[in-house]
Design goal:
The complex is a heterodimer.
Chain A: H1 6-44, H2 50-54, H3 68-98, H4 103-115, H5 120-135, H6 140-165, H7 168-176, H8 181-209, H9 236-244, H10 249-276
Chain B: H1 15-20, H2 23-56, H3 58-64, E1 74-75, E2 80-81, H4 84-115, H5 118-133, H6 136-163, H7 178-202, H8 206-214, H9 219-248, H10 251-256, H11 274-281, H12 288-318
Helix pairs in contact in B: 2-12, 3-12, 4-7, 4-9, 4-11, 5-7, 6-7, 7-9, 8-9, 9-12, 11-12
The chains are: A mainly alpha, B mainly alpha.
Chain lengths: ~280, ~325
Amino acid sequence: MNLGSATYWRRHLIDRVVRWLCVLGTLVALVPLASVLYYVVVRGVGGLNLEFFTELPKPVGESGGGMGNAVVGTLKLVGLACLFGIPPGILAGVYLAEFGHSQFARLVRFSADVMSGVPSITVGLFVYSLVVVTTKHFSALAGGIALAILMLPMVTRTTEELLKLVPESLREAALGLGVPKWRATLRIMLRTAAPGIAVGIMLAVARVAGETAPLLFTAFNNRFWSSGVDEPTASLSVNIYTNAVSPYEDWHRQAWAAALVLLLTVLVLNVSARFLVRNRVRVR
Amino acid sequence: MTVRSDVSLSRPRSKLQLALGREANLGDLAFRRITALFAGAMIVLLVWMAVEMAMASKLSFAAFGLGFITSTDWDPVREQFGGLPFVFGTIVSSLVALLIAVPISLGIAIYLSELAHPRLRTPMGFLVELLAAVPSVVYGLWGVFALAPWLRETVEPLLAKTLGFLPFFQGPQRGFGMLAGGIILAIMITPTISSVSREVMRAVPAALREGAIGLGATRWEVVRVAVLPYAKSGLVGATILGLGRALGETMAITMVIGNRAEISASLFAPSYTMASVIANEFTEATGQLYLSALAEVGLLLFAVTVVLNIFARLLVWRVGKLPEGGQL
């Protein structure tokens, strides 16, 4: 190779340029992340106090007040989503991991993947015509079901992936002791995979906690406390939306505070998930 | 303890044996059936969603037929509903997003899979994935109070001054509009495209890279001649997955795109997407036909994203090394 040739230098110049472009692209992608974090922290921290978590929103014109109802509402909605989404998701995931070679299983896997790509707003439409039209009113129940449908494919695929990571020798040992296959799966395999699955579920929760679109016409919103699961329910995410598009300065401040709470929750869940398991678990 | 003779490790038992087997097998049978039931629920749910939305949009389909997607007339007062402005807004905003996100995502994927120091790969990859963790509505809030003003005061005047002769960069500069929508979508789909691309590139056999290095290729040439050609269909799949996400994205874009059912060549002009019109008007819609028209928009959106997803996943699987549907 002639090190002095023009071709050599041109090739290496191109190499250098492209490599810098790749680094630049990565940095450019991180600018919005930094900017979002900066804005949310700087603007949100002022509105964050005890009142935010305990008080109801004040009517327009009065300053102060909080989003206690939305904090409780979000917790309620996510709780319902876990209740409806996790057990079926885990069972479906167990099926895919244990009996996953049939044509049927392949179709299930495919459906789960496709479902995770369905726009969340259409899930809201579906639950609206299914639950809200039937019961004739918006409710936390409907919101919880909508979020559960979004969680379902994530939980299923995480459970499957993690069960497949459990060494087969554990199962063989259990079977060798005379344990029936189903008990070996539940008591040995699933239990071994449980920490990883829990982390996967944490990530799924982090994702649905910030969902807004499917709640707009299922849980709707509420300016007051809602009792039980049968009333329209406020959530942080829907409130960020309604406050942000409102013309009131006070409401904007509340929206930033709510965004800070939501973002902190989501980030804490994501970062701790990262540190809890070395195995790469990802919500899909 | 009794020794069981019915446990075989190597040979799977036949269906008949399973069905007629003893107690333990009965438990296994029930276990299999029950888990299969929940697995099957996934398919049922997907089909059910399609059917439910088709039912809901029947009224609108009967009234407007296929003209629904070619008419630009969206007037709830006169009960005239045409979805073309929303289809236009959705497609154009997604294309703008792809135009920005694809080169950047490819850069990220190449950097993270081929160039970055091994110690940097994990933390940088994590940061990029955090972009996907930020809730859509928080992006929307940021878009309203940070992105849109910045576009209005800095970016749009600059674009108008330098590229103003193009029809895309003309008209009043509001900040809220197609450009803001496209940019915010680009931010949100970048982690999707880059992480799938990265997985696809990781699946390229090492021997191909080694061969190129052996021939004296530079790092970029390794990527260009060995990695990219092998990963091509997977990269297209990654892009289409990103497109699917962009089409269905609702909150952030609703908050910044301006929400006006108009078709304009200018990227500065306000627009409206399919997801946005549902989010904005569904709870306020009065009249069965109005609701049904919105449901038809939803059905259209659902159908398009499902088809795109199926297509994209087939492409990504073709790269081979990935487990079926694995780690997207």
